[in-house]
Structures are given as structure tokens and as C-alpha cells.
């Protein structure tokens, strides 16, 4: 049984989490669901490590925010696994939370697969280590969560800004990490370079435009997906798809 406490000031998020966990093939018990950090802490302070397996908390909440709740929880139960709920717009908050040894980041809207992986990880660690986890392991898990968030944040930016001129330094600045570190991390986690991932997005968008807006000229499609040189775009499209944009449009009509 995985005992979970939830703290989030949005009732729809709390209810959603409870609903998703109840439908999983894991034994999950929500031992508390609170709309602010203070109510969550008032319950949590009474618990021992055997009473709770995971705290899921939002950052921005009334009465006591997530940072304070994490701080108090860490002081009371040093090895308690904690996951942060966060939107991409709150990435700066999530980066601060990394310093508190957070296990994972659940991005809003919540992905069932990510929540499942988190709960399964907590369940497996509980089986392996019924006693308190070693501090190094907790630190390693925190690093894993942070890395996941950085990669997801990078993907989100690329999917949103694929039509703009790509600059790694600007992307790194937005994410708040070193450019070479992000490049290595992204390749390690996804098996693709950032450039290859971006090309994949751009070609997919170009295909959508070729079919959805057939009146667009080739150079217009190239510009919309981030390529100022239509000749280069043509060559790249042919390399990736095995045919020119014109042939692709004809074939799909």
C-alpha cells in the first residue's frame, strides 16, 4: 500500500489525482487531501515514516506555500519522498525546489504515465528499503526528477517556438541552465540531439501545412517552420522524407 498526501489549492487538481490513482493497478491510499500547506503540515507533523510514503505538493498555496511545507516535512521526516506539482510557467519555482531534494515533478496538466511511474518507483523503493533510505539515494532521486523536468521544459519550448530562429544559448537562458549541460542531458535522456528533435517538429509541421494549406508557396511553408532558405528546406525535407515537399503534397492529395 502506497500512502499519499496531496496539497494543492485547486480542488480540480486534487480530485483529479485521487481519481487517477484509484484507477491504477497499484494499491494507493490518499491519506489526506488539502487546499493549503498549513492544513497538510498539521496532519503531516503527526505522522511517522511508516504512516506516509509520498507527499505531492503544489508550490503556490495560501497560508503556507509548498517551499515551507517541504522544509517542514524534511525537518520532520528526512527521507520522505516528495513530488512537486508545477506548470511550465513556474519553472523557476521548481528549480528552487530541486535544492530541497524533490523526487519528481508532476507537470500540469498531469500525465497519467508520469504519475504511474512515480508511484511505482515509490512502491519499489519501499519494498527494497523498508528502513530509511540512504541520503545519497535520496539525492540521486532528486537529481533524476530535476533532469526530467529540464528535458520536458526544453521540449515544450521547442514545440512552441519551432518557427523562430533557433539559438541554443537563448533556450538555455530560458530554461536557466548551462547550454552544454542541456545539450548533453537532452541527448542522454531522449537519444536525440536538440537539433534533431527540432528538425522532427519542423518537418511534421511542414507536412501539416502542405496538406492543410495546399495554396501556400514552398518558401512560405519554409519560413513558417523556421527556415529562411527554401532551397535548404527542400533538401532537408527530401533527406528526412525521401521526397520533395511538392511530391509529398501530390502524393497525399
From TrEMBL:
The keyword Phosphoprotein applies. Residues 152-251 form the HTH araC/xylS-type domain. It holds the Pfam family HTH_18. The keyword Transcription applies. It is found in: Cytoplasm. One of its GO terms (cellular component) is cytoplasm. Keywords: Cytoplasm, DNA-binding, Phosphoprotein, Transcription, Transcription regulation, Two-component regulatory system. Its main location: cytoplasm. Residues 3-123 form the Response regulatory domain. InterPro entries: CheY-like_superfamily, Homeodomain-like_sf, HptR, HTH_AraC, Sig_transdc_resp-reg_receiver, Tscrpt_reg_AraC-type_HTH. One of its GO terms (molecular function) is DNA-binding transcription factor activity. GO terms for biological process: phosphorelay signal transduction system. The modification 4-aspartylphosphate is found at residue 58. This is AraC family transcriptional regulator. It comes from Paenibacillus jilunlii. The lineage of its organism: Bacteria, Bacillati, Bacillota, Bacilli, Bacillales.
Amino acid at each position: 500500500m502506497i500512502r499519499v498526501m496531496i496539497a494543492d489549492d485547486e480542488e480540480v487538481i486534487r480530485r483529479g489525482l485521487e481519481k487517477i490513482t484509484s484507477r491504477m493497478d497499484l494499491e494507493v491510499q490518499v491519506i489526506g487531501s488539502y487546499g493549503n500547506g498549513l492544513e497538510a503540515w498539521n496532519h503531516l507533523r503527526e505522522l511517522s515514516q511508516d504512516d506516509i510514503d509520498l507527499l505531492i505538493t503544489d508550490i503556490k498555496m495560501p497560508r503556507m506555500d509548498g517551499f515551507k511545507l517541504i522544509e517542514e516535512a524534511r525537518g520532520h521526516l528526512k527521507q520522505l519522498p516528495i513530488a512537486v506539482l508545477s506548470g511550465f510557467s513556474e519553472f523557476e519555482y521548481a528549480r528552487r525546489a530541486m535544492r530541497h531534494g524533490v523526487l519528481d515533478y508532476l507537470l500540469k496538466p498531469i500525465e497519467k504515465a508520469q504519475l504511474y511511474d512515480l508511484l511505482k518507483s515509490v512502491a519499489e523503493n519501499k519494498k527494497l528499503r523498508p528502513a530509511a533510505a540512504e541520503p545519497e539515494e535520496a539525492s540521486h532521486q532528486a537529481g533524476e526528477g530535476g533532469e526530467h523536468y529540464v528535458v520536458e521544459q526544453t521540449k515544450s519550448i521547442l514545440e512552441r517556438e519551432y518557427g523562430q530562429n533557433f539559438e541554443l544559448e537563448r533556450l538555455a537562458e530560458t530554461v536557466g541552465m548551462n547550454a552544454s549541460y542541456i545539450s548533453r542531458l537532452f541527448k542522454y535522456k531522449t537519444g536525440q540531439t536538440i537539433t534533431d528533435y527540432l528538425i522532427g517538429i519542423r518537418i511534421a509541421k511542414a507536412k501539416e501545412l502542405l496538406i492543410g494549406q495546399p495554396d501556400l508557396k514552398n518558401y512560405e511553408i519554409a519560413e513558417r517552420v523556421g527556415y529562411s532558405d527554401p532551397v535548404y528546406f527542400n533538401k532537408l525535407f527530401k533527406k528526412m522524407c525521401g521526397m520533395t515537399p511538392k511530391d509529398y503534397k501530390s502524393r497525399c492529395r
